[in-house]
Amino acid sequence: SFYYGTFPAGFLWGVGSSAYQTEGAWDKDGKGPSIWDAFTHNKGKVFRNETGDSACDGYYKVKDDIQLLKELKVNHYLFSISWPRIMPTGIKTEQLNEKGIQFYNDTINSLLENNITPIVSLYHWDLPQVLQEKYGGWQNISMINYFNDYANLCFEKFGDRVKHWITFSNPWAVAEMGYETGEHAPGLKLGGHGAYKAAHHIIKTHATVWHSYNNTWRSEQQGMVGISLTSGWGEPVDPHSQTDRDAAERYIQFHLGWFANPIYRGDYPEVMKNYVGRKTAQQGLGTSRLPTFSVQEKMYIKGTSDFLGIGHFTTRYVIQKSFPVLQVSSYHTDRELAELVDPKWPAPGPKWLYSVPWGFRRLLNFIKTQYGNPIIYVTENGVSEKVQCTQLCDEGRIEYLKGYINEILKALNDGVNIKGYTAWSLLDKFEWNKGFSERFGFYHIDFKNKNKPRYPKASVDYYKKIISANGFPNPREVANWHQKAMDICSTTHQLLATDSLITRMEMVTEIILPTAFTLCILISIVLLIFYLQNH
User: Fold this and answer.
1) Cβ neighbours of residue 127 closer than 8 Å, sequence gap 6 or more
2) β-strand partners of 225
3) How is the chain split into domains, by residue range?
4) Active site members
């Protein structure tokens, strides 16, 4: 049932985005290529062969977008730094890009001038392409030192003003989709071992960066370093069945526990080690496909997080499912489970993203129990529309936010240590291999218009009301928010329709006038030649 009440005083409200998805300017002002530049320029990898070359033109619209943040009345903005924008080859000793460093300095300063706290992710998937080509990216242990150099440069240049650092945003997707299925950059299909190896190096890198900050920068800068892990919740189909309960536990441990367990408890989850080890032995391989940490590494990694960032979007029902031993090994078959959904769950956007708010509270309580109730910042939570027509009256998003934020409020009452919430995302943006077909933004962008104008959706007004009230004060007021948001979006729709018409007319003018002018000249030349021949 819905719970009316308010969040603790000082609870942080924010919104987020990432560099590659929004900045554009992929080769401007000295930026080097990233693996996503290379991946999207390779035809057939992304829906409609779309790219983030210009994305939302965020590189040129920082001031405009900060005005949107002010309009939303958020306390913080979570964004990522593009590694190749400040270090074009990814190697500190080779080259630094001062224009890139200046861009992030200006962004941070503008946010602070407007009383908005920057929360900065060092890595939201855009590895410098040179490191992929030279070393194989996250398959190579040398990434630890290169990334640590990059992180230390960021602490040096920005750490006097940035007090919340995230080392990696959703490393599960980096490992599993980048090196196992190949759906994401760099597009490698190293089934059965690629994802485990990438994750192993990412976890070690995270720990190295945390220790760097702790030893060199913490006493002077007084900031925090954490990691942002994205995970769904797995619910047993039959809660009375031990087999289903075990399968649901594996779902979480193979997803969240894969990264959180080493950081909070010193090693991979036992169930992961057992299942991958057993599968490896059945295949006749000597050592487990899941790498191992030495005793020293376990001690070095354990405790390397000042807070835990949590991204969460949806829930699955889970049952046990065995796969034949002879089948090609993969992360997915190692888990020995199947994921199901309830057809009654609302799916306002794409078919993977069902709205199941109660799963969030269960996930947050699981974290509290498993990892000693760490400080939690929700770093990504939101829903997309997958519609061809413009959707400014986004009722699906309003209902999703209302439900999921309410479950955070319940989790706080359960004693979970949640300090802030980041809605995902500020803008409609480039959604990786889905291109621009999914829209997560509070602000709609007309990507056909070369100026990339931003238009507020109804959810802007609704989220603003939640922030102002610091929660959900009473039924009458909350119902009133919904109606007001719908009224405002109708007006914005009319504005967008007018602007779209003008854009189409401009496009027609840009194409037709030069064509007509050229035709007139050609006809005049033909007539002149004809006239001269007759005389």
Assistant:
1) 34, 35, 83, 84, 90, 137, 138, 185, 186
2) 165
3) 5-473
4) 380
